[in-house]
Amino acid sequence: MDHLKEKTLSTENIYDGKIINLRVEEVELPNGKTSKRELIKHPGAVAVIAVTSDQKVLMVQQYRKALEKTIVEIPAGKLEPGEDPMETAKRELAEETGYECENLRKIISFYTSPGFADELVHLYVAEGLEKTGDQHADEDEFLDVLEVSLDEMQEMVENQTIHDAKTAYAFLYLKSQT
C-alpha cells in the first residue's frame, strides 16, 4: 500500500482551538504532482451505548450549531490530554446522563471523517446502570436526557432526529444483538 502514500512537503498551522486544530499540508502525490490537504486534528472521543434494565437506551437531545438543528445522540465526549478512553466514557456517561455503570465494554474504534479529520471515536457498551444523581454537563452544554426503546430509536434514525454516525452505528449494533 506504500504506492498510495502521500509525502508531506510542508505544513502550515492555521488554527489551534479548544477542540480542533486546523492545518494545511502540501503533499507530493504518488504520481509526483503536488496538492494541498486541509486537515483537522482532533484528540479523539468516546461514545457510550447505555441500556437500562427495562431495555431503554439512554440518549441526549442537544442543539448542534454546525447543523443548525437539535438531534438525538448517545452520550459522548472528547478525550482530555492523556486520559484513558474508558475513563472518558465513564465521565461522559455520568456528566451527560447522571448514570454510572458496573461494567464498561469496548466494542470498536472508528474514524468519523477520514477524508479531512483524524478524530477516532471509541465506542463502549455500559452495563449495570445505576442512576446516581443529576446530569452535570459542561457550562456551555445544554441537553435533555431521553430513554427510548429500540423501535423509537429506529424511527428517529428514519426521520433523521438521530442524524450522526456514532448513534446510527450504536443503533445497528443494538439491532444486531436482538
UniProtKB/TrEMBL annotation:
GO biological process: nucleoside phosphate metabolic process; ribose phosphate metabolic process
Keywords on record: Hydrolase
Entry annotated with the keyword Hydrolase: yes
Entries under Gene3D superfamilies matching the protein: Nucleoside Triphosphate Pyrophosphohydrolase
GO cellular component terms, semicolon-separated: cytosol
InterPro entries linked to this entry: NUDIX_hydrolase-like_dom_sf, NUDIX_hydrolase_CS, NUDIX_hydrolase_dom
Domain Nudix hydrolase, chain residue ranges per copy: 40-170
Pfam assignment, any one: NUDIX
Cofactor(s) required for function per UniProt: Mg(2+)
A molecular-function term among this protein's GO annotations: hydrolase activity
Protein name, per record: NUDIX hydrolase
Species whose genome carries this gene: Exobacillus caeni
